[in-house]
Amino acid sequence: MKLSARNVLKGRVKSLVPGAVNCEVTLELPGGIEIVSVITKASSEALGLKQGAEAFAVVKASNVMIGVE
Length: 69
Hints:
Number of strands: 4
Helix content: 10-25%
Low-confidence stretches: none
Oligomer: single chain
Largest sheet: 4 strands, antiparallel
């Protein structure tokens, strides 16, 4: 897999919460950190995502915002 994104995080699918259109995917990264993504249900099916399967979170963003109260 070759991507232009520099932030590729390898993990395992911890949970899938399918909805009518979208699917919430939680990946557990090494060290127990979790990252959550919402993708289309069609994409989750096309990727064959299942609990415990290895997957990658690919982060591509032009901006990262930080806020404080």
